[in-house]
Specification:
Layout (H helix, E strand, L loop, with lengths): L3 E6 L6 H6 L2 E4 L2 E4 L2 E4 L9 H9 L4 E4 L3 H13 L3 E6 L7 H15 L5 E5 L5 H15 L4 H11 L3 E6 L3 H6 L5 H9 L2 E7 L5 E8 L1 H15 L7 E6 L3 H15 L3 E6 L2 H7 L4 E6 L4
Parallel strand pairs: 1-2, 1-6, 6-7, 11-12
Antiparallel strand pairs: 3-4, 3-5, 8-9, 8-13, 9-10, 11-13
Length: 290
């Protein structure tokens, strides 16, 4: 059985240290902000996460771009030329063209490397939901599973990676076309906070709303209580838009209710953060179908 590499993109929002520990190949999406283009590297080498959110709070906007076919071809070719196979787990196709780019690159390289196995999985996940799926795939690889077995595992499990999140500023959702200007205005006046998730098609979907920040954070944990089997044994990921104290509040509530011990917290990266804004808190776990 040939060795294989797990590739993903920076919308997985894993820490650079965890990506290195898992021996992942991670390609960055990019953003255009203030007349400059930045790559969304996991270590923030182009633009640091606190700097990005500070600039957004200051009124700057950013536009984002998927990983190109050429970038995928370059990195995939390096791996395949070393005699290793490749499993690529991409950002949700409903939110980005990154999956399409990876698929096109893989198809072109299959002719160049006919002996190689190249698989691309549409995660239908975002942020640390994608990161959790990649993490689970890496655990399967550690068990000695083949590429085909890990690919099948990813396809079977991705629909059970639950994403629950809330945002602090409704105006970012308004700019992204998720809510109307009137809803953003009155919601802000009344301190209404949306509770949203990623649905079966990998799309961001409003599910409910709460009055006040604390209630919205507790609502995320309530959803975990409804659908997570054996929550005390799970690995749970939480991402945040430069609001670590709120993410830690959610983590502590999970520990208090369920006794969960393995909880990882990291930033929502600049690409997703361009759309969700500062103050986003997102909870990811394995549960019943979304």
């Amino acid at each position: 059985m040939r060795e294989f590499v797990i590739m993903t993109d920076s919308c997985c929002d894993l820490s650079a240290a965890m990506a290195a520990e898992l021996e992942l190949s991670v390609l960055p999406l990019s953003l255009h902000m203030g007349g400059a283009v930045y790559r969304n590297w996991l270590d923030g080498r182009d633009i640091g996460f606190p700097e990005f959110y500070s600039r957004v709070r200051g009124g700057e906007n950013a536009t984002t771009a998927a990983v190109s076919v050429g970038d995928f071809e370059t990195e995939m070719r390096k791996i395949l030329s070393s005699g290793r196979d490749l499993l690529c787990v991409s950002f949700s196709s409903a939110l980005s063209a990154t999956y399409q780019s990876a698929s096109i690159a893989a198809e072109e390289l299959r002719t160049e490397f006919p002996e190689a196995e190249i698989c691309v999985v549409d995660s239908l996940c975002a942020s640390l939901g994608q990161g959790l799926l990649v993490w689970l795939c890496a655990q399967e690889r550690k068990k000695g599973r083949s590429l085909a077995e890990v690919r099948d595992f990813a396809e079977a499990v991705k629909g059970r990676i639950c994403h629950w999140f809330t945002v602090d500023d409704l105006n970012h959702l308004k700019r992204g076309g998720r809510i109307s200007a009137a809803t953003a205005l009155f919601g802000t006046m009344l301190s209404i906070k949306p509770v949203m998730h990623v649905d079966d098609g990998g799309r961001l979907t409003p599910v409910g709303k709460t009055r006040g920040r604390r209630a919205s954070l507790l609502a995320l944990v309530n959803e975990m209580e409804k659908t997570a089997p054996e929550p005390e044994r799970q690995t749970v990921f939480i991402s945040h838009g430069d609001c670590l104290a709120d993410a830690e509040f959610v983590a502590e509530e999970i520990r208090r209710r369920f006794g969960t011990r393995d909880i990882h917290i990291n930033y929502v990266g600049p690409v997703i953060g361009s759309h969700s804004g500062p103050g986003t808190v997102a909870l990811f776990f394995t549960g019943s179908p979304r």
